[in-house]
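Researcher: Before we compare anything, I want clean individual predictions. No alignment, no superposition, just each chain on its own. First chain goes here; please echo the sequence and then give the structure tokens.
Model: Echoing the first chain and its structure:
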Amino acid sequence: MTCFIRSRLLRGVAAGITVLLATAATLSAHDFWLIPNAFTIAPGSVLEVRGQTSSRFPTSEVAVTPDRVADARIVDASGTTPLSDLSVSDQSLLIRQPVRTPGQKIVAVTTRPRSVRESAEGFRNYLVVEGAPEALERYQREGKLPVDSITRRYAKYAKTMVEVGRNGPRAYQQVVGHPLEFVPLSDPAALRAGDTLSVRLLFRGQPLAGIKVHASGVPAGPGVAPAAAAERAQEVTVDTDACGVARIPVGREGLWNVRTLHIEPAPAGSGADWDTHWVSFVFSAGASTRDGSASAAGPGPVPGTPVPGARSDSAEIADVVDRFHAGLVAADTAAVLRLLAPEVVVQESGGVETLSEYRSHHLPGDMAFARAVERDRSPIRVQVKGDVGWATSTSTTLGEYRGRTINSQGAELMVLRRDPEGWRIVAIHWSSRARRP
């Protein structure tokens, strides 16, 4: 299969990164995102972008300091502009740059590599926790996983886009030359809820197939605090195809990020055993249009009003899960059963029940329990393969039930299948344990 890659490569950036071998302080297993103060600004304005470092989009727990930035630039249809006005603001890296010419601008930042020592077991755990199971499986199959402690080097590459003025030249397909990079195949500025964004993942300029790509969208706007938005994140995971293309269902309007990492053995004699490349791309669905009619200028990213109509599969699956739990809390047996397929299996409390068994046995107890105690659920993570999807989440439950104090940590897996009536639940698995004091 031939995968056609459009756009020019800005030479020298990737080469420059490979010689920046910084020794490390401490590993911070966090993503790095670029978030503009506004996605649409007027020519002559000052572009402001914040670099956020956190495991919860779009919050920031620690600032990347200017000395850790290896390369920062604006890329547009006419060329590149280095960015030098870098500072720290609260817990964020702050980038400021006057922009005078209209058009779509890519803001791209690379951090200097750092290194960390870790045990062989720690390295395996790192691959699992950071969402790179395909790397763990591949290197285990090839016999490359370490048996002794190793040095792992890591760097992060982040991009976002801002619209300057109206009807300017497009730049979204430009390749900026990061070692690992997402390149949109369609204009993110035109996205609305229910659309799909296709991005190609490039590693050293070549498509990278079979990689898990994670995306999440949060509500955004002047009245939405980052921490509150993070609690309401909608998560999806997809795989890149043979041409390195990931198709991201955009299930809501608001602020979105696409992210992944790629791990490979480091070159011999480079001072490290393994190299980890982190990459992210941030965009705003509904924040701007080709004619600039929906402005996002203001104190923060402003999403549009939700658009009625078709929604993505991931959004529909998440909605089914939410309605199932709402039915339990409301003790609405009919509403719960409508969401279950006839062949559903429910695994809980060490047993497996069919639909009829669950209806007569555990369902009444689940409803009573849901009404009696408070449950704080994490964002729902959804993956979709054709007409099958699965949703995972965790929860913390606190309260009193039948004279017992409840303080537990739970996990949930729901498998759904699409039929002519929509998505229905075909399997549920719940597990829980007492929380440690």
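Researcher: Okay. Second chain, same rules.
Model: Second chain and its structure:
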Amino acid sequence: MKRWLAHPVLTVLLMVLWLLLNNSVALAHVVLGLLLGLGIVRVTQSFWPEPLRIYKPWVLLRFTGIFLWDMVVANFSVAWLILRGPAQLRPAFVVVPLDIRNPFALSLLANATCLTPGTVSARLSADHRSLLVHALDMDSPEAVITSIKTRFEAPLMEIFEC
């Protein structure tokens, strides 16, 4: 059954956006913005995926910290690799076997891999059981696989219990 106020935060954000676009906080604009927010959310409700349940928010915070730290460190590592010259690079592809099954968590894993400089998620297998990753500088495939599985996949599996 559809709830009338399915996404209250989005409704308020749409109302605020309406007020900003009109550059007015007159009562009529507030009411119209609220009605538009409610209407847009109601009309688009069938397109929204099932509600996402985060089982361990503290692990999500830890994952976010690890991800941000990895991004900073990887930026410096990639800069150093570029400054050393292309002859020093050891680019390679590696297939990372996946244990994760939640589609949203899988998307986060692929995006976290892409957003970390020096690695790119190239392809997800049709059965969603492996991810092809390109690394700009690879010592060993096992090290890349272990890093992705322990730093990204394991926390995501814990966060979404999949």
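Researcher: What stands out in the second chain?
Model: The mean pLDDT is 92. Additionally, Helices lie at 8-22, 27-44, 57-84, 103-115, 141-160.
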